[in-house]
Every structure is written in structure tokens, then in C-alpha cells.
Amino acid sequence: MARERGVDLVEVAASATPPVCRIINFGKFKYELSKKENESKKHQHVVKVKEIQLRPFTDPHDFEFKLKHAIEFLCEDNKVRVSLRFRGRENAHQEYGHQAMKKFVDALATYGKADSAPRTMGRGITVLITPLPAINRAKNPNAKLPPMEPEPDEKRKSKAAREHDEDAAHSNGASAGSLNNAFANLSVPDKKSEPPSA
Fold first, then answer.
1. d(Cα 64, Cα 80) in Å, to the nearest integer?
2. Crossing angle for the helix pair 60-75 and 94-107, nearest 10 degrees?
3. pLDDT in tens, 80-124
4. Looking at the domain covering 2-42, what would its CATH class be?
5. Concatenated DSSP letters for 89-112?
6. Nearest to 73, CA basis, from 61, 85, 81
7. Looking at the domain that runs over 49-131, which CATH code has it been given?
8. Nearest to 62 by CA among 104, 93, 8, 10
9. Domain residue spans in the chain?
């Protein structure tokens, strides 16, 4: 029956009982499947995990800088893995590392929450922070503002008209004496006068 119509017999659902087949053009069927797959991929959000590394005695400026980056990552809906490494004798005083990690996680509380308490693994402490939903999350304080646009009247003027207006403003200002020009009241000496003799 499919050959008579010049189309193909395609098995759509092999696992169904009984198996489902359709009489369609196979090329068109493959094209529609690929379109559905691409459409479903558009709505998927891939979660990325960004990592920030700390030390037990991180400088306050560096701490704020790393905190700023973590806030940006969380506001972009990325997870953040915070890891703290101990070196040498720092391993004997892990309480300083736990204090630094707690301070960092508490500072991010309005942007994300820790999946679990910070865990000590070997010579370090790690914690994974998941972003809060956009509704519950604080606004990103580091967000860049869009550039300011000119006023609507300025948009409509051509480039030549704007240049003409600027030239007129400069010439009017100079004649009215409104410019603050330090050399306006100076006079040029005559070249014929002889220099004083010593």
C-alpha cells in the first residue's frame, strides 16, 4: 500500500503493543524529528559549576573581589563551588579555614544557599552553593547599566545640523564674552620696538 502511494512504511513506536507504524515520507519524518529535538534543546538550561578558591588568611580586598565574582556567578544561575586549601602548618589550625568559609557562605546568603555544610576533605574544605530562585534572590549590585541614549530631539537632527548648532554656540559665546578664556584680554606687542639694552 505504501509503495503504491510512493511513500514509506515507518515504525514509529516499536516498544508499544502492538507496534505502531505510519505511512509517511521518511525524509519528512526525520526532518520533523530533528526540529522537535532542536526545539526541546532551546528550552533546556545547562547548569554550570564555577569554582572559587580561598585560603584561610585571604586578604580582605581579595576576599571582597572573590565574593563579587561569586555573586555574579550566582546571579547568572550558575552553581559555585568554594574550595579552601590548607598548606603546611595551616593544616594544624583548620578552625581559621572554617571561619573564613562560614564568613564567605554567610555573605552569599541573599544570593544562594549551601547544599550542605562545608565538608573537610583531605587538606581542604569544600562547599557547593546553589543560586536562589530569581524571585527570592537579591539584585546583582555589580550589574552593568545600559548606556544612556540621547534625547529624542537630538536623535532626529542630522550630523550636519548638530555641528552647525555647536559652531553657532561657540561663535555666540565668544562674541558675548561668556567664554572663560585667559588669553582674551592680552595684546600682541609690536614687532618694531627694539628690545631693551643691557
1. 16
2. 50
3. 999 999 988 888 888 898 999 999 999 998 999 998 888 888 889
4. alpha beta
5. GGGG-HHHHHHHHHHHHHHTTTTE
6. 81
7. 3.30.110.10
8. 104
9. 2-42, 49-131
